[in-house]
Amino acid sequence: MSAISTPPLAVVEENLPNARGSRRTTKIRGVRAGFWVYIGLGVVIVSAIFPYYWSFLIGSGDASTINNPNMSWLPGGNFIANALAVVNDPAVNFWLALWNSIFSSTVIAASVVIFSTLAGWAFAKLRFPGGKWLLAFVVATMAVPMQLGVVPLYLLFSDLGWTGQIGAIIVPALTSAFGVFWMTQYLSQTVPDELIEAARVDGASMIRTFWTVGVTAARPAAAMLFLFTFVGAWNQFFWPFIVLDRQSPTLPVALSLLQSNYFVDYSIVLAGVLLATIPLLILFAFAGKQLVSGIMAGAVKG
User: Fold this and answer.
1) What is the membrane topology here (predicted)?
2) Contacts (Cβ under 8 Å, ≥6 apart) of 236
3) CA nearest 99: which of 231, 250, 257, 239?
4) What is the C-alpha separation between 240 and 167, in angstroms, rounded?
5) Do residues 116 and 175 touch, judged by C-beta distance below 8 A?
């Protein structure tokens, strides 16, 4: 009889009491990643980092760096000067644009998480007439291009006198069809119906059940949704460029003012782009570990 091969993930020791009455710890042995896995990960990492390095390389040079065929792959020494040129440019209004981007992105992301969690809980765990059709309609709205609603939306905000104000980019983005679908799928798979029934038997109202059960279970998905929405709102250019003016822009709109009609100094433009990505990198640095741990905890509990 041939020997039985060990599966990729095998239990080495069972969690059973030994002769002395103590319990042995269960040890799980996994297969180590192969050589090509590390090669693939290395290619992904280099592909992700290269655009930032290229931007820093051009942003640390001068106006002729990008057109130089003998350009050095080592950064120059002009990045601080180019960054100061962006910050001190009166046409850009950098600090106001930075505040507008932080404020609008935070409000939009928080609002999307709150409304999406409420709607996702209703679609996933409440039974009401037309619920499935209403969810299908919400998902179908994701197929409608945003550009189709720009003209009527601009006319509406123009009648309200909101053009040029930061609220004009916040109000249309307070809800998200993708966020509703995301939270609906997550809550329907994570929260068992028996847990909700047990809470109702114990006398908890539906609001109390949502707060103690639904919100607790939805934290990992809500954190990811907040991050995705924040990044999307931060990088939004089309609608803010139309509805805002130069006196109160967001950061992507303000950086577009660095381009002149006949000449574009890409060293200054890319220095400004790198400055605009610093808040996002800080957000990922502080929230990355919590997001991963939250997702893993939710996967284990689910």
Assistant:
1) Multi-pass membrane protein
2) 169, 173, 250, 252
3) 250
4) 10
5) yes
Residues with Cβ within 8 Å of 149's Cβ and at least 6 positions away in sequence, in order, are none
pLDDT of residue 294: 55
Q: What is the pLDDT of residue 31?
A: 63
Q: Could you tell me if 247 and 158 are in contact, meaning their C-beta atoms sit under 8 angstroms apart?
A: no
* Whether the Cβ atoms of residue 28 and residue 44 lie closer than 8 Å to each other: no
Q: d(Cα 185, Cα 217) in Å, to the nearest integer?
A: 12
CA dihedral 202, 203, 205, 206 (to 10 degrees): 30
**Residue-level pLDDT at 97:** 92
Contact 82, 60 (CB under 8 A): yes
| Contact predicate 274/56, CB 8 Å | yes
Give average pLDDT by consecutive 10-residue segment, the chain, 302 residues. Answer: 45 47 49 81 92 90 82 84 89 90 95 95 89 90 86 91 90 93 91 86 85 87 90 92 88 83 77 90 78 57 48
DSSP 210: I
Q: At what angle do helices 266-301 and 94-125 cross, to 10 degrees?
A: 30
Output the CA angle 42-287-248, nearest 5 degrees.
105
In 3D, which of 32, 34, 31, 28 has the Cα closest to residue 10?
28
Which pLDDT score is estimated for 47? 93
